[in-house]
Amino acid sequence: MIHVVYIPQVALPGHTLTYSWAARVLTARLQRGEEVLEEVYDLSGLSPGDTVIGVEPEVMSFSPLISVWVDDDHTLHVRLLRWYEGPEPDVLEEVLDG
User: Which residues pair with 96 in a beta bridge?
Assistant: First the structure.
């Protein structure tokens, strides 16, 4: 299971930040017009008790992955930036299979 908590942040004008999952591999996609940047985070190797904070980005100028840890039940807990324009989003948490 993957438990995701989103940390809301006002988006840069004209930019979108989206996420997709394939098992325990997270892809963060930053798009501005035709320009698309992707960061891929393979979290499948993490074990219970592992914690990662402040992941260094390889492609983007920032890391949207704030932290990740695995609990004793093998649940992956992830904190991600949630960019928005207008009112702050209502859904700031979700649980995924993974």
Answer: 2
